Amino acid sequence: MVRSLWTAATGMNAQQTNVDTIANNLSNVNTVGYKSQVAQFKSLLYQTLQTATTTANGDPKPTSSQVGLGVRNSSINSIFTQGSLLSSNSDTSFAIEGAGYFAIRGADGETNYTRNGDFTWATNGNGTMILTNQDGLPVLSSTGTTITLDANRITSRITISKDGTLHYPDANGNPQSLGVTIGMYQFNNPGGLVRKGDTLWQVSAASGEALNEATNNNVVKSRMVQNYLEGSNVQVADEMVNLIVAQRAYEMNSKAITTTDEMMQTANNLKR
Predict the structure, then answer these.
(1) Is the pLDDT at 127 greater than 70, yes or no?
(2) pLDDT band, residue 56 (cuts 50/70/90)
(3) Both 104 and 192 in a single domain?
(4) Contact 85, 97 (CB under 8 A)
(5) pLDDT tens string 223-235
(6) Which of 59, 75, 105, 261 is buried deepest, with most CB atoms within 10 A?
(7) By C-alpha distance, which of 195, 204, 189 is closest to 21?
């Protein structure tokens, strides 16, 4: 079997994954809280062409004689650099400066995490209001509970401090703490978080358990900013360059297959 056919085919498959990753980044360039991804590759097995380690004269060879058998995708890593802060007219728009994440309780009862602070107040059906994301999932406080307010509160008058504590003005217009803080959590290895879609992340064994900034003094505290959202960290210019490089690599692997086919055809025609 001709090695170059299969080697070039693995290259085409790998570059297709690369293009898929780049396309996903570009499609999420305006997604709030999105973190870009980059595909990583590693070589496959190597085949030893000559087992002897000496020359025809019996002298030891300084190098080995091996040929590679292609490439495969090793991982798709997330880039966790800070995205740009985008101004928002909504009073329930919150951005995090730092390594923190918001906590969201999913429909299955599990806690998910996100950098998307595009929240809203929703009535809870029992005379109270809760802070939710745009899908209606409740945002959790620093104690891991739902953030609930009395229905007589005017939500547009609620402000937050840099640590996420909610404040409401008193009769004199001075903000007073409501005793509720929007939770911010960090991870020892955010690269180990599992993407769930909708800009939500899930804890895994690789990421480690969530570290509550309110109770953990071993982390650098994040800062929460009201009336701002964190944009994606996708760099369009870089992604376009990466797309061109991936396309050229795909074309070169395709050319290697075509060249091998032509060589095989020439060899088959030698008997004529």
Answers:
(1) yes
(2) low
(3) yes
(4) yes
(5) 999 999 999 999 9
(6) 105
(7) 195
pLDDT of residue 186 exceeding 60: yes
Q: Residue for token digits 């229905």?
A: 151
Domain of 42 in residue numbering reads as 3-80+235-271
Same-domain pairing of 224 and 94: yes
DSSP E strand boundaries for the chain? 37-43, 46-48, 66-68, 71-78, 85-87, 94-97, 102-105, 111-114, 119-123, 128-133, 148-150, 159-160, 165-169, 175-181, 185-186, 194-197, 200-202, 211-212, 223-226, 228-230
Distance (Å, whole) CA 61 – CA 182: 66
Percent of the chain clearing pLDDT 70 (strictly above): 94
Tokens matching residue 20: 């898929």
Among 43, 195, 31, CA closest to 113: 195
Number of domains, the chain: 2
Same domain, 75 and 110: no
Same domain, 12 and 75: yes
pLDDT value of residue 51: 63
Please give the structure tokens belonging to residue 4.
């170059």
Same domain, 74 and 164: no
Contact 5, 68 (CB under 8 A): no
C-alpha span between 198 and 209 (Å, rounded) = 21
- On whether the CB atoms of residues 75 and 163 are closer than 8 A, the answer is no
Q: Let me know whether 116 and 224 are in one domain.
A: yes
Which pair of structure tokens corresponds to residue 214? 């309110």
Q: Are residues 76 and 89 in the same domain?
A: no
Q: Are 243 and 202 within one domain?
A: no
Q: Which of 131, 122, 80, 123 is nearest to 103 (CA)?
A: 131
Confidence of residue 52 (pLDDT cuts 50, 70, 90): low
